[in-house]
Write a structure and sequence with these properties.
Blueprint (H helix, E strand, L loop, with lengths): L6 H39 L1 H74 L7
Length: about 130
Amino acid sequence: MSITISYEVANFIMYTLGAALIVVIIITFINLNKFIKRMDRLVEKNENNINKTADTIPDIVKNVNDVTLGVKQSVDKVGDAIEAVETSVCDTILAVSEGTEGLFDFVGIAGEVINTLLKMFPFGKRK
């Protein structure tokens, strides 16, 4: 089964599709032109605000850089403080552990002395 289309019908279809495509393109350009005109009015209406904002951008960037530098310096100071606290805590722990070793030695010696004294004087023992 084959369908044959005459040359005139094929030309009609092609011309109709071409005309429809041209109409779509024209409508698209009209809408694009309206959009560009609205954007132009919007920019003209806000030109002063846009210029003011553009003038303040360098100051904003400078402020951001200053804040960033301040934060970095604060973080560095906090790091130094943490290192100092760490060193102090480590020194304290060492001193306490050395002190407890000395205390344990003293308690051990005192215990030996007391034990020896108790052996010399027999309390509660009957001969």
